[in-house]
């Protein structure tokens, strides 16, 4: 596991049993802008044009499923490229300074 860059597993003795904790690698690197997918870049560009688009409208525009759009938005939020302003129903998406730097 050390060769793969993973943390060592933990063994915990508890009440006549053993608990084994195996750690997974971190998949999303939130501060690595080079890991932005083409879909995520397309979404950022569409948000610039219309920041009140719905997931469904974006899915139709980009010819992908709604679940794919939601996953991409989650990644963009985790990476710090977008934030939500206002409520879920009448709010809008805003591109952060970090997101704007990727588009320029």
From TrEMBL:
Alphabetical list of InterPro entries matching this protein: WH-like_DNA-bd_sf (IPR036388), WH_DNA-bd_sf (IPR036390)
Name this polypeptide is given: Winged helix-turn-helix transcriptional regulator
Superkingdom of the source species: Bacteria
């Amino acid at each position: 596991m050390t060769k793969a860059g993973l943390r060592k597993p933990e063994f915990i003795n508890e009440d006549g049993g053993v608990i084994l904790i195996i750690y997974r690698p971190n998949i999303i690197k939130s501060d690595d802008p080079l890991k932005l997918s083409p879909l995520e870049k397309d979404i950022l560009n569409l948000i610039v044009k219309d920041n009140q688009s719905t997931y469904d409208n974006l899915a139709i525009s980009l010819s992908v499923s709604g679940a794919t759009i939601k996953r991409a938005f989650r990644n963009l939020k985790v990476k710090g490229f977008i934030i939500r302003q206002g409520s879920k129903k009448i709010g809008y998406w805003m591109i952060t300074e970090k997101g704007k730097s990727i588009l320029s």
